[in-house]
Model the fold of this input.
Amino acid sequence: MPLSKEQHDELCVSYASLILFDGEAEITSDALMSVITASGNEVEPYWPTLFAGFLSKEGRIMDLITSGGPSAGGGGAAASGNTAAGEEDATAAKDEPKEEEADMDLGGGMDMFGGDDDDY
Done:
């Protein structure tokens, strides 16, 4: 699936940012545009300015590299009306013995590829 013009431009500026960072060069709008032009690409003029403004703060690009991108948020904590009652419930749950899971024989006779276990 081909990239849209906007996706292409963003990707070009992202790669140019990484190239400058890896070369320990300052990430400026002009430097980004130079790398993009040298690669034979053209982007809308606002992209290098946008990236340079965002990445100009110390450590910002490392934060992006190590973050791994956005992730889904976890579920919220359950609301409790009375903390004392909630503490009692937590204590009661700790006192109950846990049931152990029973080992089950699943019948065997086949491996994950549909054969039997005689070959091993």
